Amino acid sequence: MENIKENILKIKKDILQSEVKFSRKKNSVTLMAVSKTQSTGNILEAYNAGQRHFGENYIQESIEKIIELKDLDIIWHFIGKIQSNKAKFIAENYDWVHSIDKISTLEKLNNHRKSIKKKINICIQVNIDSEETKSGIFINEVEKFIEQANDLKQITIRGIMAIPMYQPDYDSQFKTFAKIKDLFDSLVKKGYKLDTLSIGMSSDYNAAIAAGSTIVRIGTSIFGERIK
């Protein structure tokens, strides 16, 4: 049985140590607990340990959990692939979406968000390794994508997200993450108001923090191996 509270405290301590080690501002990295397939009981245990940001991949399962836990001050992040017919549910129930790679999807989220006063936060998913089997837009398409999104009033483009190809060693992980950070920095220098770099998971979050991540998405190291 996983000790969720103990795992969260350990990871948060590790994040703080990494912030110091890599000269990052204290509390500049947010821990997102990836809670897909996890029970509301496990989410509640994490919440009681001080966790507030949770990431989900599957619409039907997540909506049930969001409704059940609606009285808690949880910030919900959608990090899965978006089917166009599910955009309404995402727009109405989530605070963040990290997996945007189509303007048409963004337009649907924008339209369905009009009944809610607060804008939805968006990260553009970048296919940093140009993998044919992976979602995300290519590096040279990101700026044009942001420009196309400018007229959408119910969304805020906060930054970029990436799921790099698996690398077993720290140096290779950091090299890829640094490439993502270079893209992020170049966009900021051009005047785009971005503040979020969603990179790093259980196996590579230290390298991601070193490169400049502001949100790390951790599932296994908190909840244990996922239930299939």
Question: What's a concise summary of this model?
Answer:
The protein has nine helices and eight strands.
Characterize the structure shown.
41% of the residues lie in helices and 18% in strands. By secondary structure, it is an alpha/beta fold. The protein has a single domain (4-223), classed as TIM Barrel. The protein has an eight-stranded parallel sheet. α7 runs parallel beside α8. The longest helix has 20 residues, at 170-189.
Topology:
Blueprint lengths: L3 H18 L8 E5 L5 H9 L4 E4 L2 H10 L6 E4 L8 H7 L2 E5 L2 H10 L7 E7 L15 H8 L5 E8 L7 H20 L6 E3 L6 H7 L3 E4 L1 H4 L5
Parallel strand pairs: 1-2, 1-8, 2-3, 3-4, 4-5, 5-6, 6-7
Task: For this entry, give a set of tags.
TIM Barrel, globular, alpha/beta, 18% strand, eight-stranded parallel β-sheet, 9 helices, 228 residues
Please tell me the CATH architecture by its name.
Alpha-Beta Barrel
- Which fold name corresponds to the CATH topology? TIM Barrel
User: What structural category do the secondary elements indicate?
Assistant: alpha/beta
- Major sheet size, sense and barrel closure: 8 strands, parallel
Spatial sequence of strands, sheet with the most strands: 7-6-5-4-3-2-1-8
From the alpha-carbon coordinates, what is the Rg to the nearest angstrom?
17 Å
Element pattern in H and E? HEHEHEHEHEHEHEHEH
Strand residues, percent: 15-25%
